[in-house]
Write a structure and sequence with these properties.
Blueprint: E1 2-11, E2 14-21, H1 25-30, E3 32-36, H2 43-55, E4 57-58, E5 62-63, E6 78-87, E7 90-99, E8 113-118, E9 124-126, H3 129-140, H4 144-150, E10 152-154, H5 155-163, H6 166-177, H7 180-208, H8 215-275, H9 277-416, H10 423-497, H11 502-586, H12 588-593, H13 609-613, H14 621-680, H15 690-781, H16 794-867, H17 872-938, H18 944-950, H19 954-991, H20 998-1060, H21 1066-1091, E11 1095-1100, E12 1106-1111, E13 1117-1120, H22 1126-1145, E14 1152-1156, H23 1164-1176, E15 1183-1188, H24 1193-1196, E16 1199-1205, E17 1211-1214, E18 1218-1219
Parallel strand pairs: 3-15, 3-16, 10-14, 14-15
Antiparallel strand pairs: 1-2, 1-6, 2-18, 4-5, 6-7, 7-8, 8-9, 11-12, 12-13, 16-17
Helix pairs in contact: 4-22, 5-6, 5-22, 6-21, 7-20, 7-21, 8-10, 8-19, 8-20, 9-16, 9-17, 9-19, 10-15, 10-16, 10-20, 11-14, 11-15, 21-22, 22-23
GO molecular function, one term: ATP hydrolysis activity
InterPro entries: P-loop_NTPase, Rad50/SbcC_AAA
Protein name: Exonuclease SbcC
Length: about 1200
């Protein structure tokens, strides 16, 4: 396995996203690189990122979970680690990540994600946490422990191992080889042996504590129990008889009491009905009123509408004179505005010529004025400049004076507050002391809160303990009562068994049922035998008939075959004749070629009779057809006869088989019947045994029914006993639960008191710490004159910060004032020179301005004489505005006049419509009032007031209806109940079960029940003692078996303990460590041979974990490892580390190794030797990373990954293949 790439983000001090590519040529060519940087810069975080990406945990922090993630960088909302690695099976990418809620740095941690994918295709292999971890272990061949021992070599551990003595090497070896489990196993075996022996002792003591009854005592108890059961049966019968009579008397008394109660209830009901008379009359009137209520509702609506319209008409008629007056006023105003518009238009026409003349004169004046103004502006600009210079001179003088005064005041302030100068450097310490004070105060408050909570819990638990004690007493009382009831029921069950057992009764019932099945089977066999005999006789007769028919059919078949043979011969002869004739005819052409006296080419004869005489065979076609039809007819007859004969034979064979089968069945039934008769114990001949079997079967059925009924009753009783036992068990469990709860509560109370003592001590410590931190803060702020009380507010530090900031501001202001003083003095000299030059130019400019303004005033005088001070445009605009205002007033008055006229017309129309509507509505109301009055008279109401008084609210009417219905139903129910009780009383009186009174019966039943309880108590006590004896015997046998089994178990653990068990775990640990030590030395020697041929490691047998070296350069001298120099010790330690790596990785090829620390203690020569030694490992293709803060490594190793600390607790990485945040 080799690490190819590493990518991670926000781990410890390495904030942001980083990537390291280990496939770069710089790493592959050298095979050795260094990860350097100061202590605490984050070098080991790179190895943590590799472990995190692969296994989701680190050697220093363990597994990262949702509740704990100490590796995520501060002020970060997420982090991840991704490792790309290659093995023999391929290249893979493993990614682990975790983030806070919404990726905010203060959010809650979310569940981590872990996935593995194919690095080439990107296909996901697994995304679930546990399954991903299993996939990583399968692909790499290593779990986390093996990985850290195989690829991350803590070289300092082996240095400690070499320098330790034999006793100290065992725990070190456990740590670096992971063999601690053997110590645990050894101690566990020792503890298990101790526990098994203790268990055996407990079992033996329990077995000895079981007490059993003697045989004579047991038999006496059983005899006494039988006598008591018989007496109990007699007493039960007596109690049942007397109880029935008592129940009869009680029923009669109950019925008489019920009749008396019914009479009382009827009287009360009559009183209620009489009291309801008034409400009944109200209900009758309300029902009548409800019939005309819809008409009344419509009438009320019409009246309301008439009232609203009448009021609206009156209001509009009252407002009409005012509206008419507004119309007349609008008309007069309209005429006045028309006259004003004509006057304004005439004024505009007369003023236009004068306005034109004045405009020309204004243009001349404006030209002169602009020239004068220009000269004036130039003068004012110079004067303004002169004024600015005066202001600048005054300002410069004031600034210089202000700066001098400010500096003087500043120096005085600094002298007064000279103590604040030290706040610039000391405030951070004060702030730190103040910040430390708050957590101490918080701790003191938290402890005080905890004490209050614990004290409250102690009080609550005290109440709970008292409550549990009461519940425990109640549970125990219920348990005792249930136990007593169970004993009584068990006694009754034992009595009903009558000396037998339920199991024996069931066995007896099963035997009876088996015998019944046996007898029923015998009866069935008899019936079957009787039914088979006529069938066998019938089959014999049928077989004889079929055999006769088969013989006749066989004779007919032989005759038909003879006729068929004759017909076939005749047909064959006719066919031969026909073929010969055809042959002769077919050779006619050849015969014509024959010559007399010459041989025939076919037969060689020189005589040719067919040519000479023309001899042809005779053939009859009709005879041939007749012969063929005869053959077909005889063939069909033969087939039919063959089928018939075959069918007869088949039927005969089947019937013979059936007859034989039935005969065999009858014979088998006979044998079975004999066997079953013998099994059933019926001593009678087989032919005469059927009546005996039927008699036994009837008797058997009777016994089965009786026994089944008895068992059923016993099953019910047994089920009740089991229910009682279950309830008893529940009560017992409840009692035990209460006891456990009480013990837990007492234990918790003890824990609470312990916590209270601990919290009291913590409060005392917290108060001391708080006092010390207050005293420290007082000492720090004492030079600044600040008083510190017990309650130190945030304003204290704020005040000091304000004083420090004030000192800084004043220092800055002093520097500013000095600079202002220098600049002001220079400015004052420059301004004085500019003022002298400007005064000469101002005198000449003033004379020119005075002459220009004199010409302007001459022209203005001429204009004032012509037009005054008025402006032509303004005057013209004023006149036009007068005309426009007159027009606007005319339009407004016209609009008001038209609106008033229209409003008056609308009002007149509305008044007319309302008058018509009011008249119609008044007629409608009168008509409906007449109709409503007629309806009231029909319902019996004198007037509308009587109707309104009779109306009831809906809820009230429903209440009265419900009350009337309820009274009626109750009367009917009482009549029915009275009839029922009277009939039942008559029936009970006719039974006459006893002549005794109820008191006499009660006394008699009490006496019988007392005797019965005494007998049942004795039966229960005897049954309990016998059952206890039986249970004790069963328990004794069970305990003895458990003792024997436990002895075997103890022997097994004793044997294992003799081999590996010990109290401190040394026995098995030393054995396992010896084997592990030998294996590690063998692997280390293989690695050591690659580095140097001088040393060979040797297990010194003089001690369990002693180690020596053979010096090959000193004639094989055996030396102690403590005599090795620093460089030699490093080589041996490195060989041990690499040996462990090979041993831990087993069959996995580990091609990436990381050595963490161990170089800081080497001198120059030893360091050189160590680096040369590591360089030899490049030949095996391994990539080795050395993590160290030693500066000398930079000069001796070409390839570096440098981790550099930055500000704010962050670090950066530099090196080949390294890319960081952009």
């Amino acid at each position: 396995m080799i690490i190819q790439k590493l990518r991670f983000a926000n781990l410890n001090s390495l904030q942001g996203e980083w990537e390291i590519d280990f496939t770069r040529p710089e790493y592959l060519s050298d095979g050795l690189f260094a990860i350097t940087g100061p202590t605490g810069s984050g070098k080991s975080t790179i190895l943590d990122a590799i472990c995190l990406g692969l296994y989701g945990q680190t050697p220093r922090l363990g597994r990262i979970t949702k509740s704990s993630n100490e590796i995520m960088a501060r002020h970060s909302g997420d982090c991840f680690a991704e490792v790309t690695f290659a093995t023999a099976s391929g290249a893979y990418r493993c990614h682990w990540s975790q983030h806070r809620s919404r990726h905010k740095r203060g959010g809650e941690l979310q569940s981590q994600k872990h996935e593995i994918s194919d690095a080439v295709t990107g296909a996901l292999i697994q995304t679930k946490l546990q399954e991903t971890l299993q996939e990583v272990e399968a692909r790499t061949g290593m779990d986390f422990d093996r990985f850290t021992r195989s690829m991350l070599l803590a070289q300092g551990a082996f240095t400690a191992f070499l320098q330790a003595d034999a006793d100290q090497r065992a725990p070190v070896l456990e740590q670096i080889t992971g063999t601690k489990i053997y110590s645990v196993i050894s101690m566990k075996v020792h503890e298990r042996r101790r526990d098994e022996l203790a268990r055996l002792e407990r079992l033996q003591l329990e077995c000895e504590g079981i007490r059993l009854l003697g045989d004579e005592e047991r038999r006496a108890l059983e005899t006494e129990r039988a006598e008591c059961i018989e007496k109990e049966r007699e007493l039960n019968a007596g109690v049942e008889t007397e109880s029935a009579a008592q129940r009869w008397l009680q029923e009669i008394a109950r019925l008489e009491a019920a009749l008396a109660a019914i009479g009382s209830e009827a009287a009360a009901l009559d009183a209620e009905r009489e009291a309801f008379r008034t409400d009944e009359e109200r209900l009758r009137l309300a029902r009548s009123a409800a019939a005309v209520e819809p008409q009344y509702a419509v009438l009320k609506l019409k009246r309301a509408q008439l009232r609203r319209d009448s009021e609206e008409l009156a209001a509009k008629e009252a407002g009409r004179p005012k509206m008419e007056q507004r119309w007349l006023e609008a008309e007069a105003q309209h005429e006045a505005t028309e006259k004003a518009l004509a006057s304004a238009q005439e004024s505009v026409t007369s003023a236009r010529p004068l306005i034109a003349q004045v405009r020309q004169l204004d243009a001349v004046i404006e030209g002169k004025r602009q020239e004068a103004e220009r000269r004036k502006r130039e003068l004012e600009a110079l004067e303004e400049r002169r004024g600015r210079l005066d202001a600048e001179r005054a300002a410069a003088s004031a600034s210089v004076e202000s700066a001098r005064n400010g500096l003087q005041k500043l120096r005085a302030w600094q002298t007064e507050h000279h103590a604040d100068a030290s706040l610039v450097g000391a405030l951070s310490g004060i702030r730190h002391a103040f910040d430390e004070l708050h957590p101490a105060a918080e701790r003191e408050r938290a402890v005080a809160s905890g004490i209050a909570s614990v004290q409250q819990a102690i009080g609550q638990l005290r109440d709970e303990i008292a409550k549990i004690e009461l519940e425990s007493k109640a549970s125990q009382a219920a348990f005792d009562e249930a136990r007593k009831a169970l004993d009584e029921r068990k006694a009754s069950f034992t009595a009903r068994l009558d000396g037998s057992t339920l199991k024996a009764l069931r066995v007896e019932l099963d035997l009876l049922r088996d015998r019944r099945h046996l007898l029923e089977e015998i009866v069935a066999l008899y019936k079957s035998g009787k039914e088979l005999l006529p069938k066998i006789t019938e089959l014999g007769a049928n077989i004889e008939t079929l055999e006769s028919e088969e013989a006749d059919a066989t004779r007919k078949l032989e005759h038909a075959r003879e006729l068929l043979a004759h017909a076939e011969r005749e047909a064959a002869a006719q066919e031969n004749l026909a073929r010969m004739a055809d042959r002769v005819r077919s050779l006619e052409e050849e015969r014509r070629r024959l010559v007399a006296g010459q041989p025939c080419p076919l037969c060689g004869s020189e005589h040719h009779p067919y040519v000479e005489e023309q001899v042809l065979p005779e053939s009859d076609e009709a005879a041939l057809d007749v012969a063929k039809r005869a053959v077909q007819e005889y063939s069909r007859s033969v087939r039919e006869l063959e089928i018939s004969v075959a069918e007869r034979r088949t039927e005969i064979e089947q019937m013979r088989q059936w007859r034989d089968d039935l005969a065999a069945m009858r014979e088998t039934s006979g044998r079975q019947c004999l066997a079953l008769l013998e099994k059933a114990g019926v001593e009678a001949p087989a032919k005469e045994a059927e009546p005996v079997v039927l008699e036994n079967l009837a008797e058997n059925k009777r016994k089965v029914e009786e026994l089944a009924g008895r068992i059923e009753q016993l099953d019910v009783l047994e089920q009740r006993i089991r229910d009682d036992e279950a309830r008893l068990q529940q009560l017992n469990e409840a009692a035990r639960s209460d006891k456990r709860r009480l013990e837990q509560a007492v234990d918790q109370q003890r824990v609470n008191r312990f916590d209270l003592d601990r919290l009291e001590r913590e409060r005392e410590a917290a108060q001391c710490e708080l006092a010390e931190r207050r005293q420290l803060l007082r000492r720090l702020v004492e030079p600044y004159g600040v008083a510190v009380g017990d309650e130190i507010a945030e304003s204290l530090v704020a005040e000091l910060e304000a004083r420090r900031d004030a000192w800084r501001r004043e220092e800055e202001r002093g520097r500013s004032l000095e600079e202002s003083l220098r600049i002001g003095e220079v400015s004052l000299r420059n301004v004085a020179e500019q003022i002298a030059a400007l005064d000469a130019d101002l005198a000449m400019r003033r004379e020119e301005v005075e002459a220009a303004f004199a010409g302007v005033e001459t022209s203005k005088k001429e204009r004032r004489e012509l037009f005054g001070e008025k402006l032509p445009d303004a005057e013209e605009e004023r006149l036009e505005s007068l005309v426009q205002a007159a027009r606007d007033r005319l339009a407004a008055s016209s609009e008001r006049f038209n609106a008033a006229r229209q409003a008056l017309a609308v009002l007149d129309t509305s008044i007319a419509e309302l008058r018509r509507a009011v008249e119609e509505e008044r007629e409608e109301v009168e008509r409906r009032e007449a109709e409503f009055g007629a309806a009231l008279a029909g319902k019996g109401f004198a007037d509308e007031a009587a109707f309104v008084a009779a109306c009831l609210p809906e809820a009230e009417r429903e209440r009265l209806e419900s009350a009337a219905t309820s009274l009626e139903h109750r009367k009917r129910d009482l009549d029915l109940k009275r009839s029922d009780r009277e009939a039942r009383l008559r029936d009970e009186l006719e039974r006459r079960l006893t002549t005794l009174s109820a008191d006499e019966l009660a006394v008699r039943i009490g006496e019988l029940q007392a005797q019965l309880r005494d007998v049942q108590g004795r039966v229960g006590a005897i049954a309990s003692r016998l059952e206890a004896h039986r249970q004790a015997a069963d328990e004794h046998r069970s305990k003895m078996a458990a003792v024997e089994a436990q002895k075997a178990e103890c022997r097994r653990w004793e044997m294992l303990h003799s081999l590996i068990g010990s109290a401190d775990g040394k026995k098995f640990r030393n054995f396992a460590q010896g084997i592990t030590f030998e294996i590690m030395i063998a692997h280390a020697n293989k690695q050591l041979m690659r580095m140097t041929d001088r040393y060979v490691l040797l297990h010194d047998l003089s001690g369990a974990l002693e180690l020596s070296v053979i010096d090959q350069w000193q004639a094989g001298e055996v030396r102690s490892t403590r005599n090795l120099s620093g460089g030699e010790s490093f080589i041996v330690s490195l060989a041990l580390a690499l040996g462990l790596s090979q041993m831990s990785s087993r069959n996995v090829s580990v091609d990436s190794l990381f050595l963490d620390e161990g170089f800081g203690t080497l001198d120059e020569e030893a360091l050189e030797t160590a680096l040369k030694t590591l360089g030899t490992l490049q030949q095996s293709g391994k990539l080795i990373g050395i993590i160290s803060h030693v500066p000398a490594l930079r000069d001796r190793i070409a390839t570096h990954i440098k981790v550099t600390p930055l500000t704010g607790g962050r670090s950066a990485i530099e090196g080949p293949g390294v890319s960081g945040p952009r």
